[in-house]
Amino acid sequence: MLDELIARFSSSSDQRGKRVLQNILWSTGLKAVNASISFIIIPLYLTLLTEIAFGIWLTVSTVLQWFNFFDLGIGNGLRNKLAEALAKEDETLGKTYVSTTYALVTMIALGMLLAFFVADSFLEWSTIFEASENLSGQVNAMVTVLFCLFIPQFVAQLIKMIVTADQRPALANLMNTSVNVLQLSAVYILGEFGMGTLVNLAWMIAGVNLIVPLIASIYLFTTRYSGLTPSIKSIDFQYSKDLLGLGATFFILQGAALVVFMTDNFIITKVLGPEEVPAYNISYRYFNLALVFFGLVTTPFWSAFTDAYVKKDFGWINVMLKRLLLLWLAMALGVLLLIFLAPMIYHIWIGDEVEIPSVLNWAMGFWVVLSALLSIFGTFLSGVGKLKVSLFHAVFVMVVNIPLSIWLAQFSILGSAGVILASALGASVRLFFQPYQTYLILKGKASGIWDL
Prior knowledge:
Layout: H1 2-9, H2 15-48, H3 51-66, H4 74-87, H5 91-120, H6 125-128, H7 136-156, H8 158-165, H9 169-192, H10 198-221, H11 240-262, H12 264-271, H13 277-310, H14 314-350, H15 358-384, H16 388-410, H17 417-427, H18 434-442
């Protein structure tokens, strides 16, 4: 059956298309498992923690994810540069890029750890995250545990960029699924043994986040990627410019993504209170399922587009973009159905534990459909490294998103729905230039800023 699907998708000579489809099919199964876990784990969290404690957990976890962007975009720079080296079958250059990236990211990680301990001596985390007095000790300890375990994970997770550059994102998805399965098991065990504290949860969740990419790195660097295993003698900081130049662009783009969504929980906590965070996150998790499944289709195309662009296979790129747009139309109809089914699904999923406004569902649905459309052109432009115009848009988003989110949440009747609507309004500007830039590049007419 798998061979039949692959044959329909691509010709017998289209090895790139076959790899893409194989990764999509494998990723679909893994994402289905992830989606199921995402649904199952929420009721367990609500049983394990109070609604306010759960809101604080979600906010702290989200803020911690901000620090993933402090790799200065080097990880995504590696993704592109390693994909180019592999397309040219230059494993020596690939090893140099991998080794140099690990060295740079390790230095950044150590700097973040030092900065955290300096900040920790001055800041009261429980106050920052609006924790009540009875939770203050737990919150302070939880933040320390989460951050200290995050630092080695920050370096270990580079293995996901390596497998993705090798057009094997299904392996990265397998790591994510392993993490989710173990996290679900951890939350269940904590509940069964009556150990539902924020500190215990931090040890279990952060420990799982670290151990999976660490084991994957050891296994893959001693087997399939033994020729790319990072080594001190292969570190060459002359290549830092390549990684940091492209990485700096990705860093700003990631910073915009940080502002667009990952500040949302913090804004809601400060403006509306931590008790409003669970409803927002439950709605996001529900509608994000559509975006996750659409993303598992687009993700393999990033490095595939890099490979095709290096080899000047523009015909293949055109065909794939058209197919992705057709898939997006089907996905948009699916999201509309999700909006109408939302009240029933919420009732089955979480009962009456959390009330989720209808306006939040419509805002989330709009955000997901828009994000999916933009991801098609964004994936192509990222794969070919033509991101200068997107860079200017990212700066615009970082300037306007937070004040717009606060205004729509606090001074309109939208509440938390205003936060995601602000994100959608900022992102929608890309509709005016990314499709046009893609057209120019594929027609060989891109020049000036459109070719940067």
